[in-house]
Amino acid sequence: MSLSINVKNSLLLISEKVIILGMSFLTSVLMARIAGPEVFGQYAYITSFTSLFIPLCAMGLNNISTKYFVKYPKHSHYVFLSALFLRSIGALICIVLGGISAYLLGIKDEQLTYILLLLVLQSFSLFYLVEFFFLAKKQVSYTLKIRLAIIVCTSTAKIFIIMNGANLFSLLFVHGFEFVAIGLSYLTLYYLQGNQVKGQISKAPSKQSVASLFHQGKWLLLSGIAAVLYLKIDQVMLASFHGTEEVAYYAAAAKLSEFWYVFPLLIANAFNPKLIQLKQQSADLYQTFLLKILSFMVASAILISLITYAVASPLINLIYGDEYQISANILSIHIFATLFIFQRAILSKWLIIESYYKFSLMSHGAGAISNILLNLLLIPTYGGIGAAWATLLSYMIASFLSLAFTRKTREFMRLMITAMIKWPKYLHSFHIINKESDR
User: Fold this and answer.
1) Where are the alpha helices (DSSP H) in 320-406?
2) Cα–Cα distance between 104 and 82 in angstroms, integer?
3) How many other β-carbons are positioned within 10 Å of the β-carbon of residue 377?
4) 143 in helix, strand or coil?
5) What is the distance between the alpha carbons of residues 29 and 14, in angstroms, rounded to a whole number?
6) 116 CB neighbour count, 10 Å cutoff
7) I want to staple 268 with a disulfide (CB 3.0 to 4.6 A). Which of 217, 302, 342, 345 is the partner?
């Protein structure tokens, strides 16, 4: 039996990410071991700080654009230009707001220069919109090849820099240049493929279309900002209370835990067009498919968490060395957040399909606020271990408990509870529904 296009795309994307994450992990380990906690901690702190503003480069339009690319293929280029215009404005705001925030927080001159440089370079991620265009067309191999080639090259450059003195500026510049290279390559690919002319409605974006996209994306933009806050604010706050070396110990553990976060996102992205189609075709098939994907996510998260918990101490010692042994305690707590993060990837798609954008903001906002408050409570006394508990609890609040807020989301909460209790039953029968609709 041949695999459906969704499964093929998922396997292709996962294979690519295994290579990329392997390279990224190798550079982190070498940086931690060779450069030491000080450089590793500064690098983690600066990249975490700038990442707080990167959602502005997307303006909450990734999944909304995918939805329109799937539903209205003849208007794809029109939607593309409208979304790109909004993302360009967001990228400019990202640079300005990030720079002002760094200055007001009293960040030192050298670090301020690094942050401004990285903010400018990462703004080129606005062109990552192209990736979602090809994803909607189920042609992931186009952007995959570009992304893989560039990231392998930049990772190799980072390794070379680390082995030859680990200059912090050079490492940050290469990190930022990756955004530039991928973004411009994506844009070139889009136009070389002729997607602006092939069967497309040819007209310039109107104020109405741009305003409409902004109106739909504003809740997802705010939720994206909230999401990155409770993903990265812990490292920024750790640096404020305990210095960048504590950030290094936490980042070492978080790197091992967050290694897994990309996989549910890839699976959710690959199956998003399928979910959109099933929503239009059959409510029963749609609900059943959601339950099966959630069960797969739960089973994966439980397996990963238990294995990591059991081997946390020898794993940290093997990878980072005795100097980072405190990271083992952080990892054994942090890893259990995967149970909620894996299911959140499907929840995010469900919210888009159901056009329930406001709840995305509500849930991420609840997670961000709870994470900041918990960090303020726990980090001063417990350092990285406190930050790990804050991360776990805030993800549980944002991705599960917050679903009790409204009647509509309680329906999805019921699916999550069912998946967490009966995942062996549904995982056993996991398969692709109505393969013919994939064609």
Assistant:
1) 326-334, 338-353, 357-399
2) 33
3) 13
4) helix
5) 22
6) 16
7) 345
Contact between 432 and 296 under an 8 Å Cβ cutoff? The reply is no
Query: Contact 113/82 with Cβ under 8 angstroms?
Result: no
> What whole-number distance in Å separates Cα of residue 172 and Cα of residue 44?
10
pLDDT at 429: 58
Scored b (16 or more CB within 10 A) or e, 162-180 reads beeebebebbbbbbbbbbb
Q: Report the candidate in 394, 399, 115 with the shortest Cα–Cα distance to residue 231.
A: 394
Q: How many CB atoms lie within 10 A of CB 13?
A: 23
23-42 b/e (C-beta count within 10 Å ≥ 16 → b): bbeebbbbbbeebebebbbb
By the 8 A CB rule, do 296 and 245 touch? no
Cα dist from 135 to 140, 294, 321, whole Å: 5, 21, 40
d(CA 55, CA 44): 18
Which residue type does 80 have?
Answer: F
Domain boundaries, given as residue ranges, for the chain: 5-438
Q: How many residues does the chain have?
A: 439
Q: Which of 24, 17, 18 is nearest to 158 (CA)?
A: 24
* Torsional class of 182: left (φ above 0), alpha (ψ -120 to 50), beta (otherwise): alpha
Instruction: Please report, as a single letter, which amino acid is at residue 172.
Output: L
pLDDT < 70 regions, the chain: 1-10, 194-204, 425-439
Which candidate, 223, 228, 282, places its Cα nearest to that of 64? Answer: 223
